[in-house]
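User: quick one, sequence for these tokens?
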């Protein structure tokens, strides 16, 4: 087989016969626009082909007729500018994937707890003097759904519920999955009355939902919800934690009073719970890790 050469853009296929590397002809270099290719030399030593290129990067693979019989070498080269562009593109894509992993819940596509805390900090820094309301929602009897339809069935319900919540919000509202079956909605500029109205609408809509399961059956679900509001945007971690605590206490009251309902936070509710010695909130503050989390605590919301 005579020596031959295949040129594809800046790709080089060099054939070697009897241990001699075929030399690139100037004419072929010009036709292939390989002006960046300064030289190619090589020799066979100890069964290894030593190959040199003046381009920025190159990678190669041996061409063998059979084990031990080396015919040639396929080498791919790239000019520096293109190499840097490809590396930069790959790094950007990898960074975007990593950001998406912690910003979005892998199952529902909603914001994660950490991403919600980050957005809360942004809201505080851009506050225009208006307040904010919070709604906490928890799927009722979710363990029963998991027991009946296994975790794959529970996942179907979670995804469906997440879509229902998203569909009922304004563009400025934020919704996150902050626990197994618990969701949090931030309503910038909303009053307690507006938050209560929205929570009532969302729980009413949930009662009408039907989730098609793998066995063909339909699964219903309901929400318990608690809501609270702050007349001014919380300006530090303590204020933010207090707002979440009030919404969590209201959610606890909704669960205790029969589920599938909305309870707004009030001072009367706080007094009732305090006198009864009820409710030790499991909702972590912005600087603490959730009970099911591992690793370091979450960063400060308002750092």
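Assistant:
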């Amino acid at each position: 087989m005579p020596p031959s050469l295949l040129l594809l853009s800046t790709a080089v296929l060099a054939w070697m016969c009897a241990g001699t590397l075929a030399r690139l002809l100037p004419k072929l270099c010009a036709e292939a626009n390989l002006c960046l290719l300064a030289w190619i030399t090589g020799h066979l030593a100890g069964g290894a082909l030593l190959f040199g290129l003046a381009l920025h990067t190159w990678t190669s693979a041996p061409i063998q007729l059979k084990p031990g019989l080396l015919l040639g070498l396929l080498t791919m080269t790239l000019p520096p500018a293109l190499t840097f562009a490809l590396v930069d593109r790959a790094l950007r894509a990898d960074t975007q994937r990593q950001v998406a992993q912690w910003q979005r819940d892998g199952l529902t596509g909603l914001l994660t707890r950490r991403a919600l805390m980050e957005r809360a900090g942004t809201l505080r820094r851009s506050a225009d003097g208006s307040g904010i309301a919070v709604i906490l929602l928890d799927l009722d009897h979710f363990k029963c759904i998991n027991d009946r339809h296994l975790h794959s069935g529970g996942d179907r319900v979670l995804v469906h519920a997440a879509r229902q919540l998203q569909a009922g919000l304004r563009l400025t509202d934020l919704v996150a999955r902050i626990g197994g079956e618990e969701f949090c909605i931030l309503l910038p500029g909303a009053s307690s009355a507006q938050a209560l109205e929205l929570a009532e609408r969302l729980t009413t809509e949930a009662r009408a939902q039907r989730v098609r399961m793998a066995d063909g059956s339909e699964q219903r679900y309901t929400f318990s919800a608690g809501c609270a509001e702050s007349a001014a945007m919380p300006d530090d971690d303590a204020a933010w934690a207090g707002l979440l605590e009030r919404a969590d206490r209201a959610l606890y009251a909704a669960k205790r009073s029969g589920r599938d309902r909305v309870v707004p936070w009030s001072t009367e509710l706080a007094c009732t719970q305090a006198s009864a010695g009820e409710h030790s909130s499991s909702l972590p503050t912005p600087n603490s890790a959730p009970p099911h989390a591992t690793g370091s605590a979450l960063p400060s919301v308002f750092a």
